[in-house]
């Protein structure tokens, strides 16, 4: 299993018990759920695993005796609450990532929390191995509604930004969607189906700084240049998310940005990719540098296919989707048992519970 690191601050949460549920969009082998399981045990939280690809709900259940809800959910899941969004079918956003299910899982977490009345949830991806500063979450959440961590080791960046770091420049880090703590009373936003869905979730909350970052986190390392297709799948989402941050920096509301504004953003992105590629030429031609160059070329080719009007259309559609989500979210019940909530979400066909806790049995309702 290896060593699972828990900060001293995390241990203090055994007393606080302020997190209602820890929600893990799981896709890696089941052993990657070990850290989330330990955090759930320390905090007395219900563990929710939404499983696909390399892990199943049955495997997740067998990992822990902690109160848990373990469900098989992938990109084929559909529900009327998640249907009819422009961002679901935007070809530019889906290029290279049509089978991705992260936004579905994150949105399901929000809906489940709303339906059963959970106030504080923690999103924790299955590659996170360390959190610090958890004892400060209660105060921070009461002020801002969300709180996150900077993932410094391994840095949580896109392929292009990892290549920039490899070239000798530090691209910086922002708030990450995992780990992310949310007060559900302020969660009337949603995660669109695009790379950097987390940045769009808390877009207006960030402004020019990162006031909601409480500490550092660590995630398992991976090779960002393993396949150029990763860069292809990320490019449009990276352009939109970083472009929105640029608009904030210049005081331009997203809905007022013109095609000329987005053309400037595209031009700057082209310069970034070209300069990074040129700087990598000065580095010894290791295999990582060669694969980074291939990824940058794939990103550049993908960027050439994106027009300014694609960006303005996406932002317009995304903003309308947010309004539709907020309307739907405000109308769903908020006092259901977990069993009733899963039936509401059409996930009751094969729910798997770890039911060795009186607390969870009570939450499930009289049927259990």
CATH topology of the domain at 8-224 and 332-364: Spore Coat Polysaccharide Biosynthesis Protein SpsA, Chain A
CATH architecture of the domain at 8-224 and 332-364: Alpha-Beta Complex
β-sheet strand percentage: 5-15%
- Compute the number of helices: 15
Give the terminus-to-terminus CA distance. Answer: 33 Å
Q: Which structural class should the secondary elements be placed in?
A: alpha/beta
Largest sheet, strands/sense/barrel: 9 strands, mixed
How many DSSP-defined strands? 9
Give the CA-based shape: globular
Helix content: 40-55%
**Low-confidence runs:** 1-16, 355-368
Summarize the helix and strand pattern as letters.
HEHEHEHHEEHEHEHHEHHHHHEH
Q: What labels would you give this structure?
A:
Spore Coat Polysaccharide Biosynthesis Protein SpsA, Chain A; disordered N terminus; nine-stranded mixed sheet; 9 strands; alpha/beta; 368 residues
How would you portray this structure in words?
The chain is of the alpha/beta class. It has a domain at 8-224 and 332-364: Alpha-Beta Complex (Spore Coat Polysaccharide Biosynthesis Protein SpsA, Chain A). Helices cover 46% and strands 13% of the residues. It has helices at residues 8-16, 34-43, 57-63, 91-94, 102-116, 137-144, 159-166, 197-201, 203-206, 228-249, 259-280, 287-304, 308-331, 338-344, 358-364; strands spanning 21-26, 46-51, 68-72, 120-123, 128-131, 146-153, 180-183, 213-219, 352-354. Helix 1 packs across helix 2, helix 7 crosses helix 12 and helix 10 (228-249) packs across helix 11.
């Amino acid at each position: 299993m290896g060593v699972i690191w828990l900060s001293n601050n995390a241990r203090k949460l055994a007393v606080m018990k302020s997190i209602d549920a820890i929600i893990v969009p799981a896709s890696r082998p089941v052993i990657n759920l070990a850290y989330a399981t330990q955090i759930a045990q320390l905090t007395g939280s219900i563990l929710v695993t939404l499983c696909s690809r390399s892990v199943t709900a049955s495997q997740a259940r067998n990992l822990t005796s902690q109160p848990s809800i373990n469900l098989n959910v992938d990109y084929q899941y559909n529900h009327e609450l998640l249907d009819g969004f422009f961002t679901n079918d935007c070809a530019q956003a889906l290029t290279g990532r049509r089978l991705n299910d992260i936004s579905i899982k994150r949105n399901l977490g929000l809906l489940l929390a709303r339906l059963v009345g959970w106030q504080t949830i923690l999103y924790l991806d299955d590659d996170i191995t360390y959190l610090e500063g958890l004892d400060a979450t209660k105060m921070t959440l009461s002020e801002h509604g969300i709180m996150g961590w900077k993932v410094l080791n391994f840095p949580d960046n896109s392929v292009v930004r990892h290549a920039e770091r490899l070239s000798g420049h530090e691209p910086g880090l922002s708030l990450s969607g995992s780990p992310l703590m949310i007060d559900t009373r302020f969660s009337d936003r949603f995660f669109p189906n695009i790379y950097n869905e987390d940045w769009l979730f808390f877009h207006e909350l960030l402004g020019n700084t990162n006031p909601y970052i409480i500490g550092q986190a660590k995630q398992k390392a991976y090779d960002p240049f393993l396949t150029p297709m990763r860069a292809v799948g990320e490019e449009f989402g990276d352009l939109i998310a970083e472009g929105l941050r640029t608009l904030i920096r210049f005081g331009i509301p997203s809905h007022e940005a013109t095609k000329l504004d987005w053309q400037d953003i595209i031009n700057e992105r082209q310069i970034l990719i070209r300069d990074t590629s040129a700087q990598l030429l000065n580095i010894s031609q290791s295999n990582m540098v060669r694969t980074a160059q291939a990824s940058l070329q794939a990103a550049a080719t993908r960027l050439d296919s994106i027009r300014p009007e694609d960006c303005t259309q996406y932002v317009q559609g995304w903003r309308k989707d947010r309004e539709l989500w907020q309307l739907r979210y405000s109308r769903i019940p908020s006092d259901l048992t977990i069993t009733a909530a899963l039936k509401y979400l059409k996930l009751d066909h094969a729910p798997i519970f770890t039911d060795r806790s009186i607390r969870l049995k009570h939450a499930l309702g009289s049927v259990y």
